[in-house]
Amino acid sequence: MSIRFYSQYLILLLFVTLSHSISSQASFTKTTIDPIVKLGTVDVKSLNDKYQVTVINTESQDATSHVIKQRLQATKEAIKTLYPKNDNPIVDLRGSLDPPQLLDGYWGHLFAPGIPLDNHLATNGEQVLIAMNTHFSMKNLDGSPIIGFSLDHFAADVGLEGNTFDPRVLYDPQTDRYIGVFLHGSESSDTGIGIMFSVSNDITGDWVVYALPGNPFSNTTWTDYPMITVTDTDLLITVNLIRDAEPWETGFDETIIWQLDKQNGYNGEDMNSVLWQDLAWDGKNIRNLCPMESADAEPEPNAYFLSNRNFDMENDTFFFVEMTGGIDDPSAELKIETLISPTPYGAPPNAAQSVGALQTNDARVLEGYYHNGEIQFVGNTRNLDNNKAGIYHGTISDVLGEKSFELQHIIPADLEIGYPGITYTGIDPDDRDAIIHFSHTSETVFAGVSAMYYDPEFGYSDIVVIREGDGYIDILNGDVERWGDYAGSQREFLDPGLCFISGTLGVPSKHNRPWVARLARPDFALSSVDLNSKTDVNLFPNPVNSRVTVELNIPQSNLRVQALLYDNSGRVIEQVYNGIIRKSGETELSFETSHLAKGNYTVHLMADGKNLITKSFVKQ
Prior knowledge:
Helices cover 4% and strands 49% of the residues. It is mainly beta. It folds into two domains: 3-44 and 53-520, Methylamine Dehydrogenase, Chain H (7 Propeller); 537-619, Immunoglobulin-like (Sandwich), CATH 2.60.40. The strands form ten sheets. Strands 1, 2, 13, 14, 15, 16 and 17 form a seven-stranded antiparallel sheet that branches. It has a five-stranded antiparallel sheet with strand order 3-12-11-10-9. Strand 11 (192-198) and strand 12 (206-213) form a beta hairpin. The longest helix is centred in the first third of the chain and has 13 residues, at 70-82. The termini are far apart.
């Protein structure tokens, strides 16, 4: 069944349209449309997607293909000539801060590559919803799997058959619910937007699904590159409209904003909707509007967006957009202004790896958040000293007043980096600190994930490698591989100071895989309990045939416990458990041993990174 299946539900009756010119430079059009009708409900527990098929096109990346497009490729070729890479010393911005603490990490999805991966995630602190370009993976907090399925399989359950891509997910702490958005089709005749709302805080329960048209003006454009955020009343989706049969750089038509009533979405009711279009400055449409997430558990009533001139080899202009009210506010409008950065940015060169290069796209704003009158955001850039691929980190202070603007470039001396995310890690309301994470690569270091800590009073920490890659990426038949297009990160609202991140790893098969990690700010106290104090442990049966149980008394709630299994020679066979034991007291941890060879084994238990106990057993 084609995406045209839902056209009968989405006839856009445009009954109020208001155009505004808010200054001699800025303009927009606001259109109220008929409510959006629910398409269907999906019970993910009932999805039977045991094969989780992935289909990827490995055609060569040439300048005329739709993988690296003409204008961007020309820009990168010019960068190589005008601004060749060099080994000029890097200005050291590091302060005395310790780097983030790595609590744990695991594969987001073990089997499915993506071109690119498009990592994203959302969590309520107990379950983790992981999205990548072709699949969803639902896991417990410790990384143990619950269920996984392809985007195509999920979409087909409500009649949206065909190619799905570009997933985005978020957790809404105000309502304790999840939202997901994905695209469907890449031509004006079949393009669409799927929207999914969790009915409860259980990601494995029912999801209500809606569909928006990807060609809302019935012309020759299709929808690309969604970004999402929530306010206290709304779901906001920004997308780019691209003209048929043209690359996304030269075929860009405009960026639009969908404003939807999120509570009606959670309830499965008809969603009121407003469409913002014709967003322009000085007569030119603004592109790639990145919505700023709320760093607080209670989202703001207003929404903020950032954009820039992302294709230029060097520029200093950013566009700041404020939406001044919710969907039920008839006086809501957009305020658009330019901000001039004290430090320029520019489209980055492709990043080197041991074989070929990784594609860095452009210098658009990739992620940011609003907290207590301040916005922090990140994106890709050409480092203006050594002309290598780096990232920028920006801060806009006094958002509701005079707006003080700062921008710094971040690049290590021995790596090229890209596709950053940023997460607020403050604990007290006046804290302004954050963890910045990004993908790394070089001619000698495989594609992996790194992070650093930032505090405006003390600067940046050293960069810490979260996970090294295990191989270079070589999926396509050309010299340049896809690397981004974005990464996911989220504050853990139940435990301020902690966050989840996701990024791209190279693996020995020359494919890519998503890696998810849980990080903490450097001064975060993981545990104050003396783990060498009295903790009783028993192991049975011993000898064992099929399953062994470790019985222990946990002295404190919320301890992260790891169980490592060693063979008789002292070699680690496997980490059999890595998770948080929420309650103190008598606890049993058991695991299967039937697949083990006969012999002597040892279980080593650690709690919050400290030695807890060691027990040996015999496998018969």
